[in-house]
Design brief:
Layout: E1 8-11, H1 17-25, E2 30-33, H2 37-44, H3 55-60, E3 64-67, E4 78-81, H4 96-108, E5 114-117, H5 125-138, E6 147-150, E7 169-173, H6 176-187, E8 194-196, H7 200-231, H8 235-242, H9 264-274, H10 280-290, H11 292-307, E9 315-319, H12 335-344, E10 348-352, H13 358-365, E11 378-383, H14 388-399, E12 402-410, E13 422-423
Parallel strand pairs: 1-2, 1-4, 2-3, 4-5, 5-6, 7-8, 9-10, 9-11, 11-12, 12-13
Antiparallel strand pairs: 6-7
């Protein structure tokens, strides 16, 4: 097949889909599809609110057409699905967006077409959950009339160094010919190269363990931080000392959220339990990391009482709401756990984050952030996210928000040792 004639559709224009659509759109015709009309309008106006793609990069994608009209998908023969795969309130995989996208693609599918999934799933989901939807809606037969591939996303929001083109891309296909087609497609835009897996299930498993491994490692460091706190030892100092050994892994304690690390392990544990295996280490890590917000709130209260600051009727400023620094990404942010836990003790909590849209914070987290903290107003301040704006303020600028006396809790080691009253 002459792949130069392929017309690509990217389904879902979020943190993952848009950079991909822009990369392909610089060289070949691409339809970027999203169900969010406001998102489509903003991109047509030349701006990406997620800040993953610059206005200049968006303008350079001269062959990219952004739309919310499903009719445009009929022009395409390669469909790349990049929709979210969240968890529900019971921490079970929610394949709703993925299956909805599969139905949308199924309506546009023709003989010879290729469907590639990038969304993080458990091993087997592409062929066991998505393919039947494609077959039912299209009336076509899998691996006879149409083919499927899998190439897991590795986008790191806010990271200007590790970009789509500079990260090795794992690829896989439902047949050897489909695997080569998928691999060749991504080689067009990924200069770092590709790693072709032997099967879609292997590629799915590789993706889901990338973040599960990070989750478990951070859980270990979080547990050590709790232990060292009880022993009166500074955790960061311990980690710096241990880090002098060449093979010590440089993980740091903290709140574990985001679109991947706080979610992906639940996809793997779901599949494990389906086949009768109880994943003890993975679930233990998840429980520990999910409890860190409550731990931080408790430690802050202890520090407030020790310093003699007002607790009853006290006011707390939580600086940072996003799941990581220097990005507006609020998905699965665990900073909200600190806010909620402090509120449960009767404290009045203001959240401040210069990176977020207030309407997005209210929608995603049910938190209404303040436009600017009030000077000299807070009994405690929590540095929850290491935004560069907070780093630039320094200790003096941050403490200016506190009343006398107040507690400054540095959750992210943003300030030098000794500058904060307490840290994780």
């Amino acid at each position: 097949m002459d792949m130069t004639k392929d017309r690509v559709a990217v389904i879902g224009l979020g943190y993952v889909g848009l950079p991909l659509a822009v990369a392909f759109g610089a060289n070949r015709p691409v339809v970027g599809f999203d169900v969010n009309a406001a998102r489509v309008a903003a991109l047509r106006a030349g701006h990406d609110d997620t800040l993953e793609v610059t206005d200049a990069e968006l303008a350079a994608a001269v062959q990219l057409r952004v739309t919310d009209d499903t009719a445009a998908l009929g022009e395409c023969n390669v469909f790349i699905v990049t929709v979210p795969t969240p968890i529900d309130s019971h921490r079970r995989p929610d394949l709703g967006p993925l299956l909805t996208a599969s139905r949308t693609v199924g309506q546009a599918l023709s003989r010879g077409d290729l469907v590639v999934y990038e969304s993080t799933v458990y091993p087997g989901a592409t062929e066991e959950d998505c393919v039947p939807v494609l077959e039912k809606v299209s009336g076509l037969r899998f691996n006879e009339d149409f083919f499927v591939g899998y190439s897991p996303e590795r986008i790191n929001p806010g990271d200007r160094e590790h970009r789509l083109s500079s990260i090795v891309k794992v690829t896989a296909g439902s047949t050897p010919e489909a695997a080569e087609r998928v691999d060749a497609l991504y080689r067009e835009v990924v200069t770092a190269g590709t790693h072709r897996a032997s099967s879609i299930r292997v590629a799915e498993a590789a993706k889901v363990i990338e973040n599960t491994q990070r989750d478990v490692n951070i859980a270990l460091i979080n547990e050590l931080a709790v232990l060292f706190n009880r022993l009166g030892i500074d955790t960061e100092e311990v980690l710096q000392a241990a880090g002098s050994k060449w093979n010590f892994l440089p993980f740091r304690p903290g709140l574990v959220g985001g679109h991947c690390i706080g979610v992906d392990p639940y996809y793997l544990t779901h599949k494990a339990q389906q086949v009768g295996h109880h994943p003890e280490i993975i679930l233990a890590g998840r429980r520990l990391n999910d409890g860190m917000g409550a731990y931080v709130a408790g430690e802050l209260l202890k520090a407030m009482m020790h310093k003699g600051t007002r607790v009853q009727g006290g006011r707390v400023l939580v600086m940072g709401l996003t799941f990581k620094e220097n990005t507006p990404d609020l998905r699965n942010s665990r900073a909200v756990d600190v806010v909620r836990e402090l509120e449960s003790y009767g404290l009045a909590v203001d959240a401040f984050d210069p990176w977020v849209n207030p309407a997005d914070a209210e929608h995603e987290l049910d938190v209404a952030p303040v436009a600017q903290p009030e000077a000299g107003a807070y009994d405690a301040i929590v540095l929850a996210v290491a935004h560069r704006e907070f780093r630039d303020l320094g200790e003096q600028g941050i403490r200016a928000f506190g009343r006398d006396p107040h507690v400054l809790y540095d959750l992210k080691y943003l300030l030098p040792r000794g500058a904060a009253d307490a840290r994780l």
